[in-house]
Write a structure and sequence with these properties.
Elements lengths: L4 H7 L10 E5 L14 E3 L5 E5 L9 E6 L4 E7 H4 L18 E3 L2 E5 L6 E3 L2 E3 L15 E6 L5 E6 L5 E8 L4 E7 L3 E6 L4 E7 L21 E3 L4 E5 L4 E6 L4 E9 L22 E5 L4 E5 L5 E6 L4 E7 L3 H6 L12 E3 L5 E8 L2 E2 L2 E2 L16 E8 L4 E10 L12 E2 L4 E10 L2 E10 L7
Parallel strand pairs: 1-29
Antiparallel strand pairs: 1-32, 2-3, 3-4, 4-5, 6-7, 7-10, 8-9, 10-11, 12-13, 13-14, 14-15, 16-17, 17-18, 18-19, 20-21, 21-22, 22-23, 24-25, 25-28, 26-27, 28-29, 30-31, 31-32
């Protein structure tokens, strides 16, 4: 039996958090097969919320939606497979988008990823033996969605039939950079010329490799220094790497790395964590540094490309997590990490341990992929960069007292709400859909 919101809040002993839990509203996008979604949610300059709900079916693509908060209306833009021009084919579907939306002009740029896997050697792999009558996954695509005409254009296809696990765009230079899954190829695409370059693997054999040998967890977030257009990513070993598109040169920033004692200790040859990779990172235009979060430990850090310096700040895990002294339950850490509209406040959707009868519920000792080891609460944490003020605003619950689960996206919107994608129970089935709750720091009316 699920506990009430009040009882769950008491049992997690979050005394230093806000006085009452946050209540989230659930939306129904109409996708009964919607599965866990990572990153694929952003606010456009038109004030609308754009998002993708993933599919893990070989014959059903993920779906691309737009929510208009002024009309309180959700519109289906299209099935990803059909938008990629593959709706009439018999290949494994375009099941996911794994990246945020990047806006340039009137267009949103994003990419697609495979959602259907094959269990090989005990791990989820790119399917090598498609279901009868189907062909292998054709590869992820870079797409452009025109917000004025509502048309979607396929710009490029990933080589070797791989999906896109991370992407970033330089809107000024119209450069797009991707890391593919599972091998981890680094892709450079020029929007103006339509030219795609494959610069090779970023880290051993990526997640295509064998555990204990050439396996490496791949970076899920990249950032661009707009001053020179250089793009940066991390590796499982903790290296910070840079690619200069003008010089067509890639190198490791040897003077700075992420192999910190405070982050924990990892065997980077094994699956089940992001190792020393940063989990999510963004560029701060005023501070001229990148702010990132290390997933498992929850430590906030900054990286200055000019000084080649990494500096740790504070731990942004929830108050109950800090008191328990344990890592959070999601094995990769959380992607709901972003800079707020005031350009001073970081918003972070993170986990909080759950207690029953005064005892901490412990999950599985380990997992072999990005997954929750056990049940946890969802917390909103904010951190003011100028003052260093940290606030855990407490747990988030639905009106019926249930918990949002598998939360790995965030949009801090201009309408005063925070949007994300989470698991819910609908008609006896667990699906993923859009939810929102009020931003406690919003000063508007």
């Amino acid at each position: 039996m699920r506990k009430t919101t009040a009882a769950a809040d008491r049992e997690e002993r979050s005394g230093a958090t806000s006085s009452a839990p946050i209540t989230a509203r659930i939306y129904d996008s109409g996708f009964e097969d919607a599965h866990d979604t990572y990153n694929a949610l952003s606010e456009g300059s038109d004030g609308n919320i754009y998002y993708v709900l993933s599919s893990q079916q070989y014959d059903a693509g993920g779906r691309f939606y737009v929510y208009n908060p002024r009309e309180d209306d959700i519109r289906l833009i299209g099935d990803l497979t059909e938008l990629c021009g593959e709706g009439q084919g018999q290949a494994i579907a375009q099941g996911k988008s794994h990246v945020a939306f990047y806006e340039s002009g009137d267009k949103l740029y994003f990419s697609t990823h495979v959602g259907y896997y094959e269990l090989i050697d005990g791990m989820d792999r790119l399917p090598q033996h498609p279901p009868p009558g189907y062909e292998r996954y054709p590869g992820g695509h870079i797409l452009a969605y025109d917000m004025s005409s509502n048309e979607t254009t396929v710009l490029a296809t990933m080589p070797d039939g791989e999906g896109v696990v991370s992407m970033v765009m330089d809107p000024l230079r119209e450069h797009i950079f991707c890391i593919t899954w599972p091998a981890g190829n680094f892709i450079f695409y020029r929007v103006k010329t339509g030219r795609l370059l494959n610069k090779g693997r970023v880290n051993a054999s990526g997640e295509k490799g064998m555990p204990g040998d050439d396996f490496r967890s791949l970076c899920r977030s990249l950032f661009i220094d707009p001053r020179d257009g250089r793009v940066y990513y991390s590796t499982a070993e903790g290296d910070i790497c840079c690619y200069d598109a003008v010089a067509d040169r890639m190198w490791s920033v040897g003077e700075a790395d992420l192999k910190k004692d405070y982050f924990g200790q990892y065997d980077y040859r094994q699956p089940g964590s992001m190792s020393y990779n940063w989990r999510k990172i963004f560029w701060h235009p005023e501070h001229q540094v990148a702010y990132g979060i290390h997933g498992n430990s929850g430590y906030l850090f900054s990286f200055d490309p000019a000084l080649k310096q990494v500096q740790l700040h504070d731990r942004l895990t929830s108050v109950p997590s800090q008191r328990s002294g344990m890592f959070d339950q999601f094995s990769y850490g959380y992607l709901g990490f972003t800079l707020g509209p005031d350009q001073e406040t970081i918003y972070y959707l993170t986990g909080g341990p759950v207690y029953e009868n005064g005892r901490l519920l412990r999950g599985a000792a380990s997992v072999t992929k990005g997954a929750a080891r056990g049940v946890e609460n969802l917390h909103l944490v904010t951190y003011h960069l100028l003052s260093g003020h940290y606030t855990d605003h407490g747990p988030v619950f639905y009106e019926n007292g249930e918990r949002p689960l598998y939360v790995n996206s965030i949009a801090v919107a201009g309408d005063g709400n925070i949007y994300t994608l989470a698991r819910i129970n609908r008609n006896g089935k667990q699906v993923t859909d859009l939810i929102r709750f009020r931003n406690p720091l919003f000063a508007g009316t």
